[in-house]
Structure prediction request, 126 residues.
Amino acid sequence: MNKSDRDRVVFHSIHDMSSGHYLSKAERLLNSEIANDINDINDILELYNISLFFENGIYLKSWSDTDIVAYKEKVNTFKNLIGKFITNIDDSNFLSYFENIDYGYYDSFWLLINNYQQYKIYRHLK
Prediction:
């Protein structure tokens, strides 16, 4: 999935008019095989951003009901990948991941760190 930050899917808000543009990019990913051993923080953050569209019921008008059901099933598998990755971030690897985050994904990163309460394991940040 390695790609530049401008080619990535970003969820801004439910009212953002760029949703169609980003969902078109997401569609390519949704139609491809997603590896179970993702090691790029930006790939994980992109999956998270794609899942935000689905959590908010935002889809492309060109998608059929069948497409939406299939994509929802795939997106539901993202939670395990995201959780597994984020919960393995600790003092030993935090900085290397953080330094490699694409510009548009900082907010997503901190939301996930908060949601999974990974901040509680950082001894040197207390």
